[in-house]
């Protein structure tokens, strides 16, 4: 089976494109997820992912075609609408951020399920394949779809690299960023748009339910390895790429296996390894260091006692 998998990767152009797309998606998700995590906007990605479903369904109902570009355009519109609704509710009411996210997520996703049922009951519902957007099915992507997804992911990575310094200042000290004359409002809008774009382009591969996990899990895992934002982003991007690559490989082992769950399982495995064995913050590492320190303290105490006993004997 391993030989068949290697042959597929080496000679199947579609598999190569899917692999490239999921790797770039993993990198983009890891990079943006790191900043979202430090900005305490992790759950906004989850809300945006669920809010993309009604946009996908409405785009299909209006056009009657499963064109990935059109479907992603619909997802982007409702995703941005959900993100800005959350920001508006937080800024203009007494509702806290967690409650606003839950409210927007449930309303948009519930509306999406209603529209998905409507699509399934239509004459073209059986041909729509929109259920793939729930858990993701990267294998259903054709070459042009993957090129679109990979190109968008590459643009997200490039734009994030261009404004990295500004985002870094804005993340850790918004007041200082405003004092420097940085356009904080525009930067917040731009980052939120990048976050929505990352969620939208990953929906077909990972699904609306699991996309938030790809966005946040590599970032949380990377946080265990470093205190530097730059290093955290690099590590998170690597973890995201490994998750995308491994999930793609595993989903090709059987017919109809969804890619999204395997990507998330791989990311979760990397998180568990980081949580247990990271050099400074890993639980096992801390336990080993504590045991070594306790042993050294006992030895020092014993040595001190022996010295005192020798002194009294003299």
Walk me through this protein's architecture:
This protein has 314 residues and is an all-alpha fold. The chain has 15 helices and no strands. Helix 11 crosses helix 12. The chain starts with a helix and ends with a helix.
- Total number of beta strands: 0
Give, in order, the helices and strands: HHHHHHHHHHHHHHH
The percent range for helix content is: over 70%
The shape is globular
Mean pLDDT: 82
Q: End-to-end span in angstroms?
A: 77 Å
Strand content: under 5%
Query: Count of helical segments?
Result: 15
Structural class: mainly alpha
Low-confidence stretches: none
Short description:
This protein has 314 residues and is mainly alpha-helical. The protein contains 15 helices and no strands.
Q: How are the SSEs ordered, and which strands pair?
A:
Blueprint: H1 2-11, H2 13-38, H3 42-63, H4 68-92, H5 97-121, H6 125-128, H7 132-135, H8 143-162, H9 164-172, H10 174-179, H11 184-206, H12 211-223, H13 229-251, H14 259-277, H15 283-313
